[in-house]
Design brief:
This protein is an alpha/beta fold and 816 residues long. It folds into 3 domains: 18-90 and 637-799, 3-Layer(aba) Sandwich (Rossmann fold); 102-115 and 132-167 and 174-236 and 268-440, no CATH class; 473-608, no CATH class. Helices cover 53% and strands 6% of the residues. The chain contains 24 helices and 10 strands. The protein has an 8-stranded mixed beta sheet with strand order 2-3-4-1-5-6-7-8, with helices on both faces. A two-stranded antiparallel ribbon has the order 9-10. A hairpin with a 5-residue loop joins strand 9 (807-808) and strand 10. Helix 12 (422-449) packs across helix 13 (468-509) and helix 13 crosses helix 14 (517-530).
Length: 816
């Protein structure tokens, strides 16, 4: 186990000391991938010591390697190994499973970073960011509206207002209308129930603020000179025109410009997150205020007195004005990455949510005004709000698709997923996830409150249930699942056929070994299955398009429906009515079941290492990116990890002038390593080699995030470091080649590596070798060869000494 309180570590020799000036020490800085790897596993030694860092993320060494810089003669053939362990940022205690409830926020934040490469289109880039931020704001409103639907409408208005429902729920007795207590008036019931969604908004604000302080408050390195004139942090490496490709389709060399991930403010979005946090908090409070005041104001305009009616109108006007200001704040300003922006808009982040909270307090006072004759009936006027939210999200997604397609056509790249539509597709999925989660909660709570009845079915029920649009949305879920079977069956058939075709190829690779049908079939199946990763984009696109069309149909069906809430098909014939009721009921249960399984799966993922590895890559891709669109998304671990790595590399190279450093990243660790290298000053970057293996840099990040990991940023990274090697396997479902193609022989990719190492039993490997896939790249002899090549490229290794160490003469030169 790692020591919790390590002994004092001897500092590396200062640059002025003779041993530092002439040391040939090489350092390998290991960065693990997903799955909660320990430093003992990374260093293959149970005795490790924390060199620098804390319990969340730290750099470790073997105990015997602590003072390696002082004894370079010990490390002539292999470098000193250091392990940067960042698993505490993502794989902590089981309570972090609650972050999965923020999944829609995380997904819409991903859409912000998926825009195509923009060449001279600053306004289009800004419009893209505005549209994504508006979609993110709509998700906050949707979540808060769903909480209002449950607490205000289903519980306080419907169930507490009906004797049959309130009798079954004894805890609602003091709110029951038939008891005639002080809380029995509908407005006072709504005022009390407003505490639930308001507390939810407050909890989201607290979590966002707390996680920022705990995970993302690390500042980048100081003293870096970044010259860029892009006010939005989105400039490209070219002028107004796209570079012409060469004869092989690769981009021609251009004037080097620091990529976005290398800008000093990229990993420090404090100002934007604070502004968005204030705006989203205000939007949540305003949504609760509108839900509370809406029903009371409608009653006052018909039956109430002039004082109450005036107060309700004034509160509604204040809510509308504050909502416009909130939208303007979200639209006005994006990220500023060219400098480390440490300022805060103090007045805005204080007065905007404060004003919204004050309006909520006024709405509560107005609702609690005595109205003895007011009786609750039917549902609250929230049906139109849910319809408008769904319609608005659909319009924003379509507009986002138009902007993204225009950006892509300016500089098309065939490797970009869905021809530039990856961002809109993922944004649509975020809206669908938000709808499923909120609708599922509303449907399940309504069914629980109604006892033996089923709200929304129209018979034998005590309460009307949630808005009819949620029932329509539930009814399209079985249709979507049936449609999803088509691409799934197609992929299964195609994978099986591909595996059969790979059989002769595999046997030829391992010739002249005797073929084994079972062994060949297993290797071929794993290779064919690993290739499914490249089919994911069009599957996601099909699901997103079907969701958009079916969602539009659900909204249209709810809009034209003249039936009571929850009935979607009465009067359309017995067969059609039965099918619609069956689809609605099935969809409702599927929503509830899916929500329960989702929460349970998230809890298991943070308790079970195998389950965590299964979903780890998707989760770590999502939380790698800063919170640029939604401030309530889970925290970005890279805003801590990237500055950590960059600081460690800068400090080591500064104190070891002749030292050689290889940063070695596996899987997601390769993305962190590349991002940290981009953050280094040019002089430091030229002294560093990069070794990646099982890397999703191009296969996932380059295709889904082309503006940041596309062909030109990766080409620039290759040219800015001293040397780079990338190892990959055909059996790896995550890693792949980085496809650097501009130089005549860049020599970056090494692969596909042979996996397994031996087909059958051999003299060198007498036992059956496993198929490693994405794991254990260091067991392959190619790993040691690639690392040795990098160290040789960085500089000559220390000559072997005849004596027991190095001796220096008075001139400072070393002699044997």
């Amino acid at each position: 186990m790692a020591s919790a309180a390590p002994p004092p570590i001897p500092s590396p020799p200062s640059p002025s000391s003779p041993s530092a000036r002439h040391t040939g020490t090489a350092l390998e800085l290991l960065v693990h991938g997903v799955g909660g790897t320990t430093p003992q596993e990374m260093l293959d030694d149970p005795r490790t010591v924390r060199v620098t860092g804390d319990a969340t993320a730290a750099v470790y060494r073997r105990t015997e390697d602590v003072d390696g810089e002082k004894h370079p003669e010990r490390y002539r053939d292999e470098p000193v190994a250091e392990a940067y362990c960042w698993s505490g940022l993502t794989s902590g205690n089981g309570s972090r499973a609650l972050w999965l409830l923020l999944l829609p926020f995380m997904v819409v934040n991903l859409a912000h970073w998926m825009r195509p490469s923009a060449v001279g289109r600053t306004r289009a880039v800004r419009l893209y960011g505005v549209l994504v931020r508006l979609l993110a704001l709509s998700l906050t409103v949707l979540l808060t509206a769903a909480a209002c639907e449950v607490a205000l409408d289903l519980v306080a208005w419907q169930c507490a207002g009906l004797d049959a429902c309130a009798v079954r729920r004894s805890w609602l007795g003091f709110l029951s209308a038939h008891q005639g207590g002080w809380w029995s008036q509908p407005g006072r019931r709504l005022a009390l129930a407003a505490a639930v969604p308001a507390a939810l908004v407050g909890l989201l604000w607290y979590l966002s603020n707390r996680t920022w302080s705990a995970y993302e408050s690390q500042r980048p390195l100081d003293g870096q000179d970044f010259d860029t004139g892009d006010p939005f942090g989105m400039e490209e490496a070219h002028g107004p025109g796209a570079p012409e490709p060469d004869a092989e389709g690769c981009p021609r060399p251009t004037v080097p410009v620091r990529p976005a991930l290398g800008r000093p403010g990229f990993w420090y979005g404090r100002r934007l997150v604070a502004r968005l946090r204030a705006a989203h908090t205000a939007a949540g409070f305003l949504t609760v205020a509108a839900a509370v005041v809406g029903a009371a104001a409608r009653y006052d305009r018909g039956e109430g007195g002039p004082v109450a009616a005036f107060l309700g109108t004034a509160v509604e006007g204040g809510i509308a004005g504050c909502a416009l200001i909130t939208v303007a704040v979200v639209c006005r300003r994006g990220r500023s990455e060219r400098t480390r922006d440490t300022r805060l808009d103090g007045a805005l982040i204080t007065y905007l949510p404060g004003s919204a909270l004050a309006l909520l307090a006024l709405a509560v006072v107005h609702a609690a005004w005595s109205r003895p004759d007011w009786q609750s009936a039917g549902t609250l006027p929230g049906e139109a709000a849910f319809r408008l939210l769904s319609l608005g999200q659909g319009i924003l997604v379509v507009a986002l698709a138009v902007v993204a397609r225009g950006l892509y056509l300016r500089a098309p790249d065939p490797r970009t997923v869905l021809r530039g539509l990856g961002g809109p597709v993922v944004a649509m999925l975020a809206c669908a996830l938000g709808g499923v989660m909120t609708g599922g909660v509303a449907q399940r709570v309504a069914d629980w409150l109604d006892g033996p009845g089923t709200p929304g079915m129209g018979h034998d029920t005590d309460i009307p249930g949630p808005p009819v649009v949620l029932s329509w949305q539930a009814s399209v879920i079985p249709v979507l699942l049936i449609l999803l079977l088509v691409p799934v069956v197609f992929l299964v058939v195609r994978t099986a056929r591909r595996a059969r075709r790979l059989g002769p190829v595999i046997e030829a690779e391992y010739a002249p070994e005797q073929p084994d049908e079972g062994r060949t079939r297993r290797i071929a199946r794993i290779r064919a299955t690993a290739a499914l990763t490249d089919s994911a984009p069009w599957i996601v696109g099909v699901v997103s398009a079907a969701t958009l069309l079916l969602g539009a149909g659900a909204v249209a069906g709810a809009w034209v429906s003249d039936e009571v809430p929850g009935r979607a098909a009465d009067g359309r014939g017995p067969l059609l009515e039965s099918l619609a009721d069956a689809a609605q009921s099935t969809g409702s249960w599927l929503i509830g079941l899916g929500f329960i399984l989702f929460v349970a799966g998230g809890r298991r993922a943070y308790k079970d290492a195998s389950a965590r590895r299964t979903i780890g890559i998707l989760w770590d891709v999502g939380t790698f990116w800063p919170r640029a669109a939604h401030p309530f998304a889970p925290p970005c671990y890279a805003e801590r990890a990237v500055p950590d790595l960059a600081s460690r590399m800068s400090a080591w190279t500064a104190t070891t002038p002749r030292g050689r450093l290889v940063i070695s990243g596996h899987s997601q660790g390769s993305v962190l390593a590349a991002s940290a290298v981009w953050q280094l000053p040019d002089a430091t970057r030229r002294r560093i080699a990069l070794l990646t293996y099982g890397s999703p840099l191009e296969r996932l990040y380059g295709r889904w995030f082309p503006a940041y990991f596309g062909p030109e940023p990766l080409l620039g990274l290759h040219r800015s470091v001293r040397c780079w090697r990338n190892l990959w396997r055909a059996t790896d479902p995550i890693g792949g080649p980085v496809r650097i193609c501009a130089d005549p022989d860049p020599g970056v990719d090494r692969g596909p590596l042979k996996d397994p190492q031996a087909y059958g039993r051999t003299t060198r490997l007498p036992l059956p070798e496993p198929i490693l896939g994405h794991s254990d790249y260091q067991a392959d002899p190619a790993f040691a060869e690639a690392r040795a090549d990098l160290l040789d490229a960085l500089g000559p290794r220390l000559p072997r000494q005849a004596g027991a160490g190095l001796h220096e003469d008075s001139s400072g030169r070393s002699s044997g």
